[in-house]
Design a protein that fits this description.
The protein has one domain. It is about 65% helix and about 0% strand. The chain has three helices and no strands. It is elongated.
């Protein structure tokens, strides 16, 4: 999702693979999900700022 939002390529070695996320503990999974949600909200805010 974030990769698509930011226009990043899936073969970029610096990006975390989705399958690796699935193997995280539930605590780490929750933290990852909060980060993804936060990045999504920032993307939305930046989009609004750039288009106003």
């Amino acid at each position: 999702m974030i990769k698509n939002e930011l226009g990043l390529y899936t073969n970029d070695p610096n990006l975390i693979e989705e399958s690796a996320i699935e193997e995280l503990s539930s605590e780490n999974q929750d933290a990852y999900n909060r980060i993804v949600d936060w990045l999504g909200s920032i993307t939305s805010i930046l989009d609004k700022l750039m288009n106003s």
